[in-house]
Each structure stands twice: as structure tokens, then as C-alpha cells.
Task: structure prediction
Amino acid sequence: MFFAWAIVLLVISAVLVALKLEPVAGQTAVVVYYCLVVGVVGEVLELKKNQKNDKNLPVI
Result:
């Protein structure tokens, strides 16, 4: 879900730049970055959790 929000916020950030609201767009881009970080960490944790249950997954 974090990835979907990141895409939406990235589009909003581009619109804000087009509207000459660069400071707000910059803050929105920071939120996009945090969404992506949280999403990747969540996916890695989920993969590690599932890896214990399924021996066919690659080792991380």
C-alpha cells in the first residue's frame, strides 16, 4: 500500500512543481521517499517471514 501512495504523491508533487509551489512539492517528495523506504522494509520483512515457512524461496 505504501507503494501506491508513493506513486500518487509523486504525481501530486509534479503538479505542485507545475503550479510553482516548489517548497510544498519538495516536502511532498520527502514523504514519497519515506513511503518507499517503509514499503521496501515491509516487503523485506514479509519475505524473511515467509522464507521461514517456505524453503523454496531465495535466501536474503
